[in-house]
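User: Quick one: structure for sequence A, then sequence B.

Assistant: Sequence A:
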Amino acid sequence: MLIPGEDPFYYTTGRRPRFPVLMFDSTLNPYGSEELLNLARAQKIRWLIVKRKLQVRTEIEDEARIIALLQQDFEPVKRLDNYDIYQRK
């Protein structure tokens, strides 16, 4: 699961998305923060990647709350130049 999802991550890694939302912003995210947490659990999302410096500044409604809720189930694994990588606990 990639937040906000602006990179061509799935294309470059050859991975298939397991989450129904590929890009998070105020126009594309149909789910509330609690729903996102429940969906991540239901879809058995194992990795959470949070991009810190964005190419296009998109507003994600409740972004801090979404990340805080997801971090309940994930632990930090690596901090890269522009990404925080978490793995399911």
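Sequence B:
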Amino acid sequence: MRQVITIIILLIYPILTNCQERVIYHAYHQTASSWDIDEWNISDTTKTPWTLKETIDSNGRVVELVFLENGQPSRHLCYLANRVTFEYQENRIIETLYSSDQELLATDCEMPYKTIYHLDKDGFITKTESFAKYDFTKSDSAEIKQWKEWVPEYVEKLADNETNLQIDYYYHSFAKMNGIYPVQRNFKLTNNYYYGDEPERESIVNGIRKLKKN
């Protein structure tokens, strides 16, 4: 009997875990090279064609961002993902960028599709690892070599050598990591085209403050 109960628990646990996820929506608009939040936590998604769907896990962490236009994934802009997922492992956050359901290709958008953010015991970023993938079906060896020089297949950045490590798409998230905005220890928040205005900036300031209090 005990074995049967154990099996039942193992079977329903993933279902219960998924049920604990919640979804919130934000109003945003497109710029020439970014998404820009207009309002957090909107209750009526019919008032604007541009809504950001944010899925939050039971620990208060963002696990997915989907940028919607009239209820469907927005038109893909190069250098921007219209869907982003976040996976949480011990002292690591894995961010994956998509164009709808396809991982971004460097040969389309000249950028990595996945970044792993390594955190120290206090939650500060110590290094990042970025990975690119390509479509070389119509490329010769010279083009392949050139692409891998333009957008390397693997790039590692150490916090000791950088001044601005942060989780790229977290500035579009309201939840972030249960309110925390991970950065490197010597991070300096400056005016930035992508997240320099409100309401993003306030959420970043509050998230860094919460990180430093942990």
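Residues 2-19 form the longest helix (18 residues). DSSP finds four helices and eleven strands in the chain.

User: Thanks, that's what I needed.
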